[in-house]
Amino acid sequence: MTDPVEWAGFVLSLAMVYCNIKEIHWGWPLAILSAILYGTVFWNSQLYGEASLQIMFILTAAWGWQQSLRGTAGQPRITDVAENSVPPPPKLSITTLQPAERRFVFIATLLAWPAFSFFLHRYTDSDVAVWDGLVTALSLLGQYLLGRKKIENWWIWMLVNALTVGLMVEKSLWLTAVLYGIFAVLSYMGLQAWRRHAR
């Protein structure tokens, strides 16, 4: 029988991705709630990288929510607008990674993957340390790019979601495997939606 916590995380996660595609800032608090639920599910399934990743998701979701409400860097905050009658800040715009940024995120991810994998292999009883470490490193990258509204975040999430389907099947988390399959399709839809919006 499927865990009710997994069901709740499933529903909230779908709502979160819908909000992200539509650029609705409520996606961020939904991300926090679903991360709390899935942290429990993954920990109980010995997916310690995925479980620890949920803590990062909570922190980066809080940061992303702040970025969404604040607008672009250097612009006045919403509270400043109310107090000083300053025009509201523009929304953070969809952009692409510059070549130097691409190199940086590639190298950072390439270093993070073996570091996470080593930690999981050495200090936990994980039997999927390398796989879990890769998904963890790529997920952190995807979350960072999403928070900065870089269109490449959707490519990263497509890869993460495809890898995670296999990881969830390995752990017999069938509902979550279905969720990540849906995520893979929604990631492609998000990419197309952001491309249209950027144009």
Draw up the topology in text.
Elements: H1 4-21, H2 27-44, H3 48-70, H4 78-84, H5 99-123, H6 129-147, H7 153-170, H8 174-198
Helix pairs in contact: 1-2, 1-8, 2-3, 3-6, 5-6, 6-7, 7-8
How does this model look, in words?
It is a single chain. The protein is mainly α and 199 residues long. 77% of the residues lie in helices and 0% in strands. Helix 2 (27-44) runs antiparallel to helix 3 (48-70) and helix 6 (129-147) packs antiparallel against helix 7 (153-170).
Name the overall outline.
Answer: globular
Largest sheet: none
User: Roughly how many Å apart are the termini?
Assistant: 46 Å
Rg over CA atoms: 17 Å
Question: Percent helix among the residues?
Answer: over 70%
Low-confidence stretches: 72-76
How would you state the average pLDDT, rounded? 86
Feature tags:
mainly alpha, 199 residues, globular, 8 helices
Question: Could you give a short description of this structure?
Answer:
Helices cover 77% and strands 0% of the residues. By secondary structure, the chain is an all-alpha fold.
